[in-house]
Amino acid sequence: MSEIETLLNKHNVRPTAMRILIYKFMAKKERAVTLTEIEQAFVKSDRATLSRTIKTFETNGIVHQIDDGTGIPKYALCESGCNCEVDQDLHIHFHCTNCDETVCLTDHKIPHINLPEGYMAENVNLVVKGICEKCSVV
Predict the structure, then answer these.
(1) 91 pLDDT tier (thresholds 50, 70, 90)
(2) Residue 96, annotated as binding a ligand
(3) pLDDT given at position 30
(4) Could you tell me if 30 and 60 are in contact, meaning their C-beta atoms sit under 8 angstroms apart?
(5) Dihedrals φ, ψ of 90, to 5°?
(6) Whole-angstrom distance, CA of residue 114 vs CA of residue 10
(7) What is residue 78's predicted lDDT score, i.e. its pLDDT?
(8) Which of 19, 45, 103, 105 could bond 92 through an S-S bridge, CB–CB 3.0 to 4.6 Å?
(9) What percent of the chain has pLDDT over 90?
(10) Would strands 91-96 and 127-130 be described as parallel, antiparallel, or unpaired?
């Protein structure tokens, strides 16, 4: 059994050929990707299958969705041991305004925010916008 198959099984996701291919595609990118990018990479595949795969990955903690302010949801693979729940494993995302790429900065955690009594956080998202390392070298 491959490493990807083991990971999918660990997350209670059946390792179908399409799911393995999508996981490999996302792992190669090393950045957040849009559903449109996945659809363009797998043009001969059914769009509904691709969308369901991403939803399954998200529901089972394999990817997390990022709202980087562009209005287009992006998806990034969760790192080993990641628990993308509020109060668990929240990290900063960086969106490059030059190349339009969004990356997870998993070593930079969002500090816990104490809300007033009666308030309950459902989602926390911190996106830093600027010029990424690749674009700043040019």
Answers:
(1) confident
(2) yes
(3) 85
(4) no
(5) -95, 130
(6) 33
(7) 87
(8) 105
(9) 67
(10) parallel
Task: State the Cα–Cα distance between residues 76 and 62, nearest whole angstrom.
Answer: 9
Question: Residue 100: left if φ>0, alpha if ψ -120 to 50, beta else—which one?
Answer: left
Q: Is 84 assigned to a binding site?
A: no
- Collapse the DSSP code of 116 into the 3-class scheme (helix H, G, I; strand E, B; otherwise coil) and give the result: coil
Place of tokens 């693979």: 77
In this predicted model, what pLDDT tens digit does every residue of 109-120 receive, in sequence order? 888 888 999 998
For 45, the domain range is 3-135
**Total domain count for the chain?**
1
Give buried/exposed letters for 49-66 (b at 16+ CB in 10 A, else e). Answer: ebeebbebbbeebbbbbb
Distances in Å between the Cα of 98 and the Cα atoms of 38, 44, 50 are: 21, 31, 28
Sheet with strand 33-34: strands edge to edge: 33-34, 74-77, 63-66
Question: Which amino acid appears at position 102 of this protein?
Answer: T
- Which residue matches tokens 């700043």? 136
Residue 78 marked in a binding site: no
CATH number of residue 28's parent domain: 1.10.10.10
Q: How many CA atoms lie within 13 A of 36 on its CB side?
A: 3
Contacts 24+ apart (CB under 8 A), 79-86: 79/104, 79/106, 82/106, 86/121, 86/122, 86/123, 86/124
